[in-house]
């Protein structure tokens, strides 16, 4: 599951969630933006600006565990 948004959500832009999203190489994301947004129990969240100007937040999960995806989606 991926969240894609743009700056200015208060200006009428919408949040978009979608499955089957493109997978990114961590190195590419860190090169696009080395800004770490935060850490949680399931992993670290990074901000990246894509070539088309879209801003994405990507969570790099610590470990894949049974039920981990379900827990991630519930939080």
TrEMBL record:
Signal peptide segment: none
InterPro entries: At_inactive_RLKs, Kinase-like_dom_sf
Source superkingdom: Eukaryota
GO MF, one example: kinase activity
Protein keywords: Kinase, Receptor, Transferase
The keyword Transferase belongs to this UniProt entry's keyword annotation: yes
PANTHER family: OS05G0588300 PROTEIN (PTHR48010), RECEPTOR PROTEIN KINASE-LIKE PROTEIN ZAR1 (PTHR48010:SF58)
Name of the molecule in the record: Putative leucine-rich repeat receptor-like protein kinase
Taxonomic source organism: Trifolium medium
Lineage of the organism: Eukaryota, Viridiplantae, Streptophyta, Embryophyta, Tracheophyta
């Amino acid at each position: 599951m991926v969240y894609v948004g743009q700056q200015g959500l208060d200006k009428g832009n919408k949040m978009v969630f979608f499955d089957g999203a493109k997978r990114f190489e961590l190195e590419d994301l860190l090169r696009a933006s080395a800004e770490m947004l935060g850490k949680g129990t399931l992993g670290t969240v990074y901000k990246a600006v894509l070539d088309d100007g879209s801003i994405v937040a990507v969570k790099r999960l610590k470990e894949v565990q049974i039920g981990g995806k379900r827990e991630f989606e519930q939080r």
